[in-house]
Design brief:
By secondary structure, this protein is mostly helical. The chain has 5 helices and 2 strands, in the order H-H-E-E-H-H-H. Helix 2 runs antiparallel to helix 3.
Length: about 180
Amino acid sequence: MILTSPKIKLIMKWFIKCLRQYADFNGRASRQEYWMFILFQIIFYFPALGLDLMFGTFNSTLGIGIISFAYSLTILIPTLAVAIRRIHDIGKSGWIYFYLYGIPVILYFILIGVFIGMFGTDLLLMGDDIDPTQIDPSIFSPSMGIIGILFLLDVIYLLVGGIWLLILLIRKGDIGDNNYGPDPQ
């Protein structure tokens, strides 16, 4: 089997290390540790997605299935922990991750909740099946324009923050000790 290859075991040690440090937000993580964890996270996501498709548990409207969602939820805390340790490696506070990524994601879900509150779940989940003659024009109000502008600003914030976060995660870590611990190299 491919996972028993010595090279794969050597590379996979980073994934296992991050899982062992499940909720450890202290210390530092090297670029190799972070990116190898992300690589194996993606590699393991595809079989979960395949199982969703095979068992018919994939929801095309939401773009995720039950098994892949369960995998994503399971791996969420280790992903946050290694990302914050990676940011610590460049001498920055882990709160930067929250400011650049957490705030726009939280705002997105708040706006989705407002949208569902205004229009109900039927309009949201109909997708391509929406018949314009069935939509009541009275549901559109000036507040709809405000929600649209907030969505646009949130997407811009998420894109700019995501690019900045990517730059921070790619950067070489501080050489030697910093405020967050010893050099992970």
